[in-house]
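Students often ask what a holo structure prediction actually looks like on paper. The answer is less mysterious than it sounds. You provide the chain, you provide the ligand, and the output is a string of C-alpha cells encoding the 3D arrangement of the protein together with zinc ion.
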Amino acid sequence: MIEIIAHNMPRYINRYEAWRSIDEPKTNIMIHATEGPRTVEMFVNGEKIVNGVVISSQYVIDANFNIHLIPPNDSVLCFHVGDTDFRNISGYRHNRKNSIGIEHENSGLMGSFDNRMYAKSAELIDYIINYEKHPIRYIIPHEFSSRKKLDPGVNWDWNSFENELRNCDLLFSSQSYTLTKKDKLWGTGKTFTWETRIINFYQSLAGSSQLENYLDQKDYQKEVNLKVIGTGICLIIIFIILTLLLKEK
Ligand SMILES: [Zn+2]
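The corresponding C-alpha cells follow.
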C-alpha cells in the first residue's frame, strides 16, 4: 500500500489563495523538479508567492522518496503552472485547472534524479489513476507548459521513468520533443537543448466516462454560445439595413 504524508495546507495564508476547489476533471499530470531543498516546508508555510498567489503542487516527492500531499486533497486547483492554455500534439489543452502537479526534489537546475525517484513517481501516478480515479490522459513535463521553466529538465531520464510506469502495468504511448530554452531565471543566459516527452494513456481509464460527460457538456455550451452570437449578429444586420432604408426615405 502506498504511503502518503498528509499536510492539509491551509487555504489562505497571508491573504493569498493557496488552492481553490474546482470541478474541472484532472486529465493531466504535470512533472516538476524542485531545483532546490525545503519544498514541502515552503509550500505548507506559503513561502513561495508569485504574482499574488501561493505556489503549491498537489504532491511532492522529497529527497528521501517520501510522498507528500500538500492541500487537503488532490482534486483542488493548485498553483504549480500558469493558467495559459498550452496544447500538446493532439491539441489537448493543459493548464493548472486540469493538472495534478508532482514536484520531485532535486538539488538544483542541474540536479540529477535517483532511480528510486522514478519508481516512487510511477507508484504515485498509478495511485492517482487507479485509486483516486482521476481521468488522466497525459503526463506532461512542466518545461512543455511554460515558456520560462526548465523543469524537470536536462537530467530527467525518460527511459527510466517509462520503465517504472510499465512496472506498474500502465499502458501508454509516448512522443518525444526536442526543447531549446535559454535560462533566464538563474541569470546565466545559458542555452539548454534537451529531449523531453509527453506520455499518452490511450487505454480506457476508470474515470473516463466522467471526462467524456464533461467534454460533451463543454461542447454543448460552445454550440449554445455560438447560436447566441449568430442570432445577435443577424439582428444587428437587420437593424442596420432598416436604418439605411429609413434614412433614404
Ligand atoms: Zn515546475
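The chain has two domains: 4-205, 207-249.
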